[in-house]
Amino acid sequence: MRVVVLASSPYSETGCAMAARLAQLGQTVAGAISLPAWDRGTLLRKLAQWGWRDSWRFAWSKLAPAKRTTPAKLHNSYLRNAYFEDALRQGSKVLRNLHEVGKAYGFPLQIHADQNSPAAMAQVKLWSADVAVFTGGNILRKQLLQTPRLGVLNSHLALLPEIRGMSSPEWSLVCGVPLGVTIHQMDAGIDTGPILIRREIPHSGECGSLIDLRNRMIAFGIEMMGEAIAGLEAGAIVPARQASCARDTQYFVMHERLKSAAAGSLAQAGSAAAEKCRG
Amino acid sequence: MSEPRAILKAEAGPPRRTAKAVNEVAGLLRGPHRIFPLVLKIATDAARIRLQSRNLYSYSTTRRETGGALRDVARWLVNAQRPDGGFAAFYSLLRGYSESYPEVTGYIVPTLYDYAAVTGDQDAQRAAEKAASWLLSLQISSGAFPSGLHGENSYPSVFNSGQILQGLVRSYVETGRREILQRAEAAGGWLAEVQSNDGSWPGANAYQGVAHTYYSMVAWALAQLAQVSKNREHAATAGKNLDWVLAHARPSGWFDGINLRGHPTYLHFIAYVVQGVLECGILLQRRDAIAAAEKSAWMLLRRFEIAKHLPGCYAADFKAGASFTCLTGNAQMSCVWLRLFEVTRDLRYLNAALKMNEMLKQLLPVRGRRGVAGGVAGSFPAWGAYQPLRYISWGGKFLADALLLEQRLMHLVEVGACAS
């Protein structure tokens, strides 16, 4: 299968890990399309989320010469996903951006300010993509969604159709929906496209924090994506329309005070799991 | 709310508008100490629009503690009480406090009692008691209450009578004074008397002489009265109006019949319809009303979550083009979402309300002179179309209500999360 990876930035860890892992699983990564690294909105958002210090540390880990970076010092797990270690390690070197991943696995990277632009779509066509994998970026238009032969796939960090939209692991926790990942084909709606694989995440109670849970789910989703593409290729997986729900199941960015409640639910799940093990 | 000023806006021709503008500017000349707060407000709003992108944080982070913001708003409300006992309608950055305003005085009373109950603030309780006494002195022999600012030419007003009724009912509950209940019953009786057969309130006692769906707030007040007086006739009057309002609901969740000629349909009025329908529906146990209110509330929630703000005014079916926000309407929607969370247990309503409250808290002036610190502006930015360059008392009332509800419900969620 010829796969194109869509990423929010050349430094997107998820984009890097997705491209590297799919290549390791034997898929042909035809290319990657990313938004530019320096976008004012993203920069301001990261500054607001992380503060100056962590933003600087993160930027340094990505931009400094490889020998001078010390990834181990990036203690905050939101700056680094430890579950990507295997996918991104090449010998003694850790691949830090899509340029490096592309070089290692032999695919080109193109930067476009808009993934829906005619130039980006022409590139996807030129690469004769069978399927595209979305790891972040713009809201995709119908024209782009229909360009690859088998559409664009997304790894959603919750079970569909129960939880659509943003902050999905956290909403799963507070709504009492089992934690899981869904690989689905993207359509014009928000997480409403046909489902390829839907699976609960094992041992979620072992996660020490919401960030840890999210990181683990992203890594789990990458493995599921590999499986979904292989299944599509073999004809073993057929996309299935989502069951309709009586009420709107779209969720939005969760406020930090509710996230505390979600973290509480996660801790309780952890204690219950530990209790079960002891029992 | 704003009916009297709405009347001024809608019915004033060009000469009157000019006279009003001259009067406002002359107010600044009479009180030059207001020049600095005015310039500061315009400069900070301009800077905020330019530098702080609306969707930078999506308001999902707590940047100002709720208790402190609530204290500031309550202090602003208490400071807005005039010597006669009524609350000023607004503090204008051009001409200072307005005269006492019976309508908002009525529905500020429950807010101050709620605040006093939570914090033990005696000043707030005393202010509520004084306000209730003043309101009783305004009642017309028919049982109605007058429209407009105190001292203006007025007519017996359905809407003001309803809003004042809220204060009287609460005042009776707090003090147990029979006289207050009798006066409230008289107001309820008058409202039933002037109600048309279809359940609406058109005619001489209505704003612009036509029926409005945002008079669902009157129905809510009557439902409250029915509950404390055990008089089913008040519930019947409320239910009849509710039926009329629900007949104006579109499948999109939009309510027709707001019927304001000469000025846009501000979010404030839409939120009135929704809040009145919801609260009346809860009290009368009408599922159809709760469902209709939920539909509108959900439409506005989606818009808020996706665009990160709610436009200040709308055309039918929530089509919007305004770039300013109506802060009072925002606070009202926060109240509606919080109550819907309470009714449905759908955490998305609580989530949206928390974010809306964050935005409102961030726009609350922390420092400044009396009339400014803790005040809720009519619009953001301050020169927006709704009550420009004013801090308005009904905005403070609804924000205080929203923050009080947030505190109560978050406490339940946090205790629930710990206990489950």
Tell me what you see in this structure.
The complex is a heterodimer of chains A (279) and B (420). Chain A has helices spanning 13-24, 40-63, 85-88, 98-105, 118-126, 142-145, 168-175, 210-234, 256-278, and strands spanning 2-7, 28-34, 89-90, 93-94, 109-111, 131-134, 152-156, 164-165, 180-185, 195-200, 250-251. Chain A has 279 residues and is α/β, with parallel strands linked by helices. Chain A has 2 domains: 1-150, Rossmann fold (3-Layer(aba) Sandwich), CATH 3.40.50; 155-279, Rossmann fold (3-Layer(aba) Sandwich), CATH 3.40.50. In chain A, strands 5-2-1-6-7-9-10 form a 7-stranded mixed beta sheet. In chain A, strand 1 (2-7), helix 1 and strand 2 form a beta-alpha-beta unit. In chain A, helix 1 runs parallel beside helix 4 and helix 1 runs parallel beside helix 8 (210-234). Chain B has 420 residues and is mainly alpha-helical. Chain B is built from 15 helices and 10 strands. In chain B, the strands form 4 sheets. Chain B has a 3-stranded antiparallel beta sheet with strand order 2-1-10. Chain B has a 3-stranded antiparallel beta sheet with strand order 5-6-7. In chain B, strands 3-4 form a two-stranded antiparallel ribbon. In chain B, helix 7 runs antiparallel to helix 8 (178-194), helix 13 packs antiparallel against helix 14 and helix 14 (347-362) packs across helix 15. Chain B starts with a helix and ends with a helix. Mean pLDDT of chain B is 90; it is low at 4-14. Chain A binds chain B through residues 41, 44-45, 48, 171, 174-175, 248, 250-258, 260-261, 264-265, 268, and chain B through 53, 56-62, 298, 302, 305-306, 347-348, 350-352, 354-355, 358, 410, 413-414, 417-418, 420.
